Amino acid sequence: MQKENSRLMKAMIRRLRRDEKGAIAVETGMILSILLVVGLGVFDYGLLAAHNMGLANAARSGMQYALVRKPQSGDFTAIINAVEKAAPAETTAGDRQIDVSMYCRCPDDDTDVECTSEEGEDLSCPDATLRAAYIKVAISETYPMMFNIMGIADDIHLKEDVVARLN
Fold first, then answer.
1. Residue range 31-50, pLDDT digits in tens
2. Rounded distance between C-alpha atoms, residue 95 and residue 162, angstroms
3. Three-state secondary structure call for residue 95
4. DSSP element (H, E) containing 84
């Protein structure tokens, strides 16, 4: 009885080894699962790139506003409002930061210096040339990836800076 059972079992295994029905379905399933993971990753990184371009456009929009309406006495609220209006919808992380700063430099020096004295007068460089005034608009935000595939990416910090000379 036992001998007959083992003989039947061997015959069934031989038959299954030769049978190739369903092999295409198994191979297709394996390939499609890999393609799905790759496709979702490409989609997610595409959304990341689009969001980053939106942040860059918002920073440029704030800079355009600053160049047309020069900021007076360090009041940057109108520039910040222009950046917020042009920025894409805030992500779920909710940590968007918009920074606007103004600084001056002498032509021969790379260090930042004060632009005006306490009395409000423009300061000159040691060689009697006028200091160059710059304005910087920066926007930063954490972008949460939709698909955390194999721990490759959780959140990505995005930052865009735009600097322009005012004078």
1. 999 999 889 888 988 999 99
2. 20
3. coil
4. helix 77-86
